[in-house]
Amino acid sequence: MFSIPSFRAFLAAIAALGVTACGGGAGSDPPAPTGPDLVARGNAATATAQNNAACNGIRPFYWEVGDRSQRLAGASINQAGNASTYDANTEMAIASASKWLYGAYVDERRQGTLTAEDVQFLNFTSGYTRFAALGDCFPGDTVAECAARGDNDIAVPAHVGKFYYNGGHMQQHASLPGGMNLGAMDSAALAAELRRLLGSDIQLSFGQPQLAGGVRTTAADYARFLRKVLGHELRIGTLLGSHK
Question: Residue 75 CB: number of other CB atoms within 10 A?
Fold first, then answer.
């Protein structure tokens, strides 16, 4: 799975390559914009991943870019003296990338029509902002136990209606009867439930039953999920846009 610094770096390289000049005489329409072909784009991303200083600092890692149909470029970037190698099939904790999976699951459960409460929780404006990134969810917990530990189940009035990045929004939404009502599920049951709607072809598990950050999967499986989004095989694909 790629890391954020390297992802931003090779996206910047691709964006730079995509800037082209438009010519044409006075009074004529400019020619259609052109850009580098896929080979050039792949080469730019590869060079960035292999040589950029930010990327060198996080070796070893795996990166990949693709479209709705296939992988277009990618590689394992190793580090001298480090025996670890990450590839498309290496299982790992994906942290906050879990949020896309839960959002897509909710959209499937609601069949593409979200309630006002769903939107509030998924947009992180519910006020449930006391959930700690670490320590509030244990491997043997249920969804509800994670949501209720400490004061996680108490909304902060001053935060209601305002964007506040925190895993508590999704944890509460998953556990509440008016939300997804998944409170009784442990990690194994939760993984089976997400796969029921996202697709049995997507392998995933939960290291802890935390919707916003507990998933373990591979880059290959996450890419499979993203292709379903891009191909509108999952309803979240049609819900992204001007009113996300």
Answer: 16
Amino acid making up residue 226: L
Among residues 34, 40, 32, the alpha carbon closest in space to that of 14 is found at: 40
Residue from 242, 238, 243 nearest 110 by CA: 238
Angle in degrees, CA 203, 214, 3, rounded to 5: 80
Does an H or E element contain 189, and which? Answer: helix 187-198
Cβ atoms within 10 Å of 115's Cβ, excluding its own: 12
Q: What digits encode the pLDDT tens for the residues 174-195? A: 999 989 999 999 999 999 999 9
Is residue 152 within 8 A of residue 168, CB to CB? The reply is: yes
Residue 85 corresponds to which tokens in the numbers above?
Answer: 């190698």
239: nearest Cα among 95, 123, 96, 94: 123
Residue partners of 179: CB distance under 8 A and separation at least 6:
117, 118, 121, 172, 173
Does this model's pTM top 0.85? no
